């Protein structure tokens, strides 16, 4: 399978700043938002790895900052 034939995925985030990959053909579930990034699984993983560097939920990060 070439990269043009590879399944496409989208990157999602939730209210806690957590990320997930979802096949592009599947509707975005409730409580998740589409980031607008679409690519192969590997491209999406690279995108998430570059942006989601702190895996703690947003509510925990905020609580620890107070």
From TrEMBL:
<dbReference type="Pfam" id="PF03621">
    <property type="entry name" value="MbtH"/>
</dbReference>
<protein>
    <submittedName>
        <fullName>MbtH family NRPS accessory protein</fullName>
    </submittedName>
</protein>
<dbReference type="GO" id="GO:0005829">
    <property type="term" value="C:cytosol"/>
</dbReference>
<feature type="domain" description="MbtH-like">
    <location>
        <begin position="2"/>
        <end position="50"/>
    </location>
</feature>
<dbReference type="GO" id="GO:0019290">
    <property type="term" value="P:siderophore biosynthetic process"/>
</dbReference>
<dbReference type="InterPro" id="IPR005153">
    <property type="entry name" value="MbtH-like_dom"/>
</dbReference>
<dbReference type="InterPro" id="IPR037407">
    <property type="entry name" value="MLP_fam"/>
</dbReference>
<dbReference type="InterPro" id="IPR038020">
    <property type="entry name" value="MbtH-like_sf"/>
</dbReference>
